[in-house]
Design a protein that fits this description.
The protein is α/β, with parallel strands linked by helices. It has helices at about 1-15, 20-35, 40-55, 60, 65-80, 110-120, 140-150, 165-180, 195-210, 225-240, 255-265, 285-290, 300-310, 310-320, 330-340, 345-350, 360-365, 365-375, 380-385, 390-400, 405-425; strands spanning about 95-100, 125-130, 155, 185-190, 215-220, 240-245, 270, 280. The chain has 21 helices and eight strands. The structure holds guanosine-5'-diphosphate (GDP) and magnesium ion. It catalyses: GTP + H2O = GDP + phosphate + H(+).
Length: about 450
């Protein structure tokens, strides 16, 4: 989506004054870009009509830079269509807060349940996961695994004990949560591969029985044109309060987001952006619009960096840099912090101008971090503390030990020296830099 719009806007920026023909050509391009991104036709039509109307109005004619004004209008309309303000999770005045999940099978409900539990736990809550998906044979087991990873307990019916009724399980879980002082209850429900009446009835019955504070509809961002029909069906069936966009990682086209919000009028609360439990972001309409318009999602990037970089560790490193005692061990620790951020490819994709560097990003090798880690781990303590002692035979031993080559070891030492030099010049307390890649 972005690449195309970037070109259109670049062209527009060369214009001092816009003719109606310019506006029409631009709107046509935006329309094509949105349709390419699988935004529903009705949504595209309404969107481009609004942009066109505003682009041809006095607001643009009288602007100092009409082209920039059009870019601004597109941005504003995108933000509006994505829901305007950031919508945060609503908590009950009287705990427990009950959050029910709904959506098709494979949408990412169970994964999201774990992600949300992990995030809430990190914020000091005491969430519990509830297995109300009793449809698929291994659904309860999957939730238990997710719960273990997130470090939260799972409420599930006793195995073999008649199993059966998800409505009863969900209802009982609320009493259990209240008893055990869990302040948030996350109820995972069953899905089907397609919308069907029985599934919707069951979801509606669970909703009625537990009266949730939030009903979150989880939808796969890759679903494309089916997004509208699916969202409508769930909106009518369970009347959800918000949307979770899952699988918004990699080069997923964000078209479904625009369609779902615009068709249901319900806000997106979270974006699920990968298979790991940490891959969850609060959805910010403004940032998503910027991302679509390729202004880069710098804010989200910084937020993630701050979370992953352990503050204590960062301070220690800053201290060492100040004392010029930065070693390969510290380098390794930094590398591991960076890995916590997730795929480097994904991070690079969030940077401004990412659409223009698509090819370089595609070629970035995420395994580089892993190999670098292996190399450092094959070094002795003395070598890590003082890379100057790394002669030829030591380098060969390290290459063999880490399954890499001497030339890779050489490159790493070189990168480390560059990084160490660079870090000395970085002021204390600034954003940590990425070894060998320059600062963010
Ligand atoms: P459910 O049937 O709705 O509970 O869906 P699951 O949570 O079981 O997820 C279905 C599949 O999608 C699993 O293989 C997950 O690992 C994967 N998945 C879930 N969320 C994401 C995401 O944000 N990104 C990616 N890449 N995969 C995801
Ligand atoms: Mg599931």
């Amino acid at each position: 989506l972005s690449e195309r719009l970037v070109k259109t806007f670049a062209h527009l920026r060369t214009k001092g004054k816009l003719s109606p023909a310019d506006v029409d050509a631009t709107v046509r391009e935006i329309r094509r870009a949105l349709l390419d991104a699988d935004v529903a036709l009705t949504v595209v039509k309404a969107f481009t009509a609004r942009v066109r109307e505003r682009a041809l109005s006095d607001e643009v004619n009288q602007a100092l830079n009409p082209a920039q004004q059009v870019v601004k209008i597109v941005d504003e309309e995108l933000v509006a269509i994505l829901g305007g303000e950031t919508r945060h999770l609503r908590f009950a005045k009287q705990p427990p807060t009950v959050i029910m999940l709904a959506g098709l099978q494979g949408a990412g409900k169970t994964t999201f349940a774990g992600k949300l539990a992990l995030r809430l736990r990190g914020e000091g809550h005491t969430p519990i996961l509830v297995a109300a998906d009793l449809q698929r044979p291994n659904a309860v087991g999957q939730l238990q695994v997710v719960g273990e990873q997130a470090g939260v307990s799972v409420y599930a019916p006793e195995p073999g004990n008649g199993v059966g009724d998800p409505v009863k399980v969900a209802k009982a879980s609320i009493r259990y949560a209240r008893d055990k002082q869990h302040d948030v209850v996350i109820v995972d429900t069953a899905g089907r591969t397609g919308v069907d009446e029985q599934m919707m009835k069951q979801a509606a019955a669970i909703r009625k029985a537990i009266d949730p504070d939030e009903v979150l509809f989880v939808i796969d961002a890759m679903i494309g044109q089916d997004a509208v029909a699916t969202a409508k069906a769930f909106d009518e069936g369970v009347d959800f309060t918000g949307v979770v966009l899952s699988k918004l990682d990699g080069d997923t086209r964000g078209g479904a987001a625009l369609s779902v919000v615009s068709v249901t009028g319900k806000p997106i609360l979270f974006a699920s952006t990968g298979e790991r439990l940490e891959d969850l972001e609060v959805f910010h309409p403004e940032r998503q619009a910027r991302r679509i318009l390729d202004m880069g999602d710098v804010l989200t990037l910084i937020e993630q960096a701050q979370k992953a970089f352990d503050e204590e560790e960062a301070r220690k490193v800053a201290d060492k840099i100040a004392r010029e005692a930065f070693t390969l061990d510290d380098f390794l620790k930094q590398m591991q912090q960076i890995k916590k951020l997730g795929s480097m490819k994904k991070l690079l994709g969030m940077l401004p101008g990412a659409a223009g560097m698509r090819q370089q990003i595609e070629q970035f090798d995420d395994s580089l971090l892993t190999r670098t880690e292996a190399i450092i781990q094959s070094m002795t303590k003395a070598e890590r503390d003082n890379p100057r002692i790394l002669n030829g035979s030591r380098r060969l031993r390290i290459a063999n030990g880490s399954g890499t080559t001497v030339s890779e070891v050489n490159q790493l030492v070189q990168r480390f020296e560059q990084a160490a030099k660079m870090m000395k010049s970085v002021a204390r307390g600034g954003m940590p830099s990425i070894p060998g890649m320059g600062s963010l």
